[in-house]
Write the structure tokens for this entry.
Amino acid sequence: MSCASPQDPRATVKVSNPNTRDGSFAVKIHYLDADGFEMVRTRAPVFAPAGGTGTYRVRVTTAGVVDHIARCVVEPRAAWIGY
């Protein structure tokens, strides 16, 4: 995963799907400032093929936030939301 920054305001996440069928998963990303304060969070569906990996790039659209992001935290489990 890569975090959003002023140079690239998009975070990149990968979702591994260990299941035997394709699916979409709800990925949650928390964007923190240097003090660990959560500035914004995103939740996005990411498609991953059966036994494979899906990659998603999500843009931080909240004005001024990207300049203060120190790190991103992705929740380790993404809930299955369908096909």
